[in-house]
Amino acid sequence: MAGLSIENVTKRFGETEVLKGVSLDIADGEFVSLVGPSGCGKSTLLRIIAGLEDQSSGDIRIGGQSVAGQRAADRNLSMVFQSYALYPHLSVGENIAVPLRMRRLNSLQRLPLVGRLLPGTRAQSRDIGQQVAQAAEMLEIAHLLDRKPGQLSGGQRQRVALGRALVREPAAFLLDEPLSNLDAKLRVQTRAEIAELHRRLAATFVYVTHDQVEAMTMSDRIAVMMGGRILQCAPPDVVYDDPDRIEVAEFIGSPK
Ligand code: ADP
Ligand code: MG
């Protein structure tokens, strides 16, 4: 199928098996939240999908194609971290432009030497500027483009991180607890913005959160993970009203 397929993925760190055979099919454009107690393997799974970590066994398919051995930069995915992971010495605009510059560098390296000497760099720079401006506008940070991350609030920094994810126009966004460093009010506001982004982009979202309300309100489906396995993946009302197992009910807080 198209979309994102996780096929029986396992992961060991030394003796410890952190992922014990995770399988999940996510359709194009679907918003799936991944919830579960701390340490159950959510971030590890996301990092494996992104190509930042290798699985021990199993496969990841994007649009039907295995991405085994494909570098993170080539996977057509964007990941957003809880810690923002911005470059402190670069301006907001330069931070957002990083993936575009890397992409251009990659494609230049694939050209024969003579191709690298051809003009066109200036036109491409203008394109990058336009793409950055567009992303910044969408996230309402256009007035902050010249600032450094250190001069921004947490909410603004997370929007820059979202802008940097957005500018690649990826097929899928992987978000690892992107709102957990924000205060309650900003969290509600940024949550609404992420939902709006999903609506406008029609891209696939895999969203790790420990906030049940977030998962319940934003998702097409919720995957409940425990001890390196997905116990249930279903629409929010099904997970809540008809949990497969007692562990799911207890975690979600369904009435017993
Ligand atoms: P979650 O995001 O659900 O809190 P993680 O995926 O971060 O969980 O971690 C799952 C388990 O794997 C934890 O027990 C963690 O200590 C372990 N782990 C994660 N990364 C590493 C690593 N690089 N080396 C060893 N153990 C790790
Ligand atoms: Mg985590």
UniProtKB/TrEMBL annotation:
Signal peptide: none annotated. One of its GO terms (biological process) is carbohydrate transport. GO terms for molecular function: ABC-type transporter activity; ATP binding; ATP hydrolysis activity. Transmembrane segments: none annotated. Keywords: ATP-binding, Cell membrane, Membrane, Nucleotide-binding, Translocase, Transport. Residues 4-252 form the ABC transporter domain. One of its GO terms (cellular component) is ATP-binding cassette (ABC) transporter complex, substrate-binding subunit-containing. Belongs to the ABC transporter superfamily. This is Carbohydrate ABC transporter ATP-binding protein, CUT1 family. It comes from Roseovarius pacificus. The lineage of its organism: Bacteria, Pseudomonadati, Pseudomonadota, Alphaproteobacteria, Rhodobacterales.
